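FW: tagging you since you asked about this chain on Friday. Here's the raw sequence from the shared folder, copied in full. Didn't touch anything.
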Amino acid sequence: MARGQASTRERSVEVKPAPMAGLGDMARPKLLAGVPFDPRNNALNLVRLMLAAVVIVDHTFPLTRGLPSPHVGPQTLGGWAVIGFFIVSGYLITGSRTSRPLSEYLVHRVARIFPGYLVCLGVIAFGAAPIAYLADHGTLDGFLSGNTKPAMFLWLNFTLHQAAFDVSGTPADIPYPAVWDGALWSLWYEFMCYLVVGFAFCFAAVRRHSGLVITIGYAASVVVMRFHTTVLPYVDNSTDVYFFIHLLPFFLAGAVLFHLRQHLRYSIAGAVLAAGVAFVLIVYVPVCGSHLAAPFLGYLLLWVGTVLPCPALIRREDISYGVYIYGFVIQQCLVLLGLRELPIAVFAMMATALTVIPASLSWILVEHPALRRARGQIAYPWLRRRMRPRPVAQELA
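HL: got it, structure written out here
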């Protein structure tokens, strides 16, 4: 019997529709009353993508005009974006460490950072650099015998620590010469922060009192930053130590917020208060004001990640890392093509749009498969036929 015919013989029941909530009623719980941060339903991928775009905007000034990066208070525009990356990473990475053993944690961290990074170095050394060299010299003769050969560029930089910036003298005759990817410098310090959190949780006392220990660690890192001029002479004024001292408090601030996740509610009132406190600390506290403001800046970022609408595609596919590591390269290529005279806003938008292409390819072909392999899974169904299935015993190990 057809479904429609059956329904006509059934006894009709009047159902009163529930009153539809207005936009104000729908928004009030999220914006005013506050909600906890949802680790599965948030816009942090979009937040990080916007931070990566800010880095591209910041780099546009020195790369196209030879001008200093614009400052906002004590930091450059790109500096604030890097700070945002470290705070968000501190929150997420601490959660990763508390949910898995050290060995698995390290495998995941390596899988997240290194494959995309190494491929990026290869693209520079064997893609962008030879094309730039050919355009400058009309031949590739001498490309493999320059001061920084392609293989040497890979060798000197493969540990994340940046020791070589040009490849055989390229890029040349531009406002910011002999540097292919000036955005990679922060990755080494971020990975050092991964190790700090990773090994700290090896101690039972830290695991038992993790919130207290992380908070004390954050406070101590701020104190060290406040007196860094006293500390640095003991390490020969190392710039590596300085940047680590500078960035660690932001990472640990994110870790503190993770340990407070059960108690924090993200609301517009809290965001306004956090913004006010952060502004006062940044403006009126010398040297370490931004470091003291880090938890409040983190609250703002997580609040944005809570209320900002995020397309499902961006929530599922995270290309922010690829945009960060390829943005500088794409900008240098555009400058080499003679587009540096474009208005800064136009150049920045063009560079950002074009960077999405290698960033997406990096995520689909390199980063996501590496992460899924680290978890013992297949990244995309169409990759299944290219990868041998594992024995059942290995899957269950």
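FW: Residues 102-137 form the longest helix (36 residues).
HL: agreed, and The chain is about 65% helix and 0% strand.
FW: great, closing this out.
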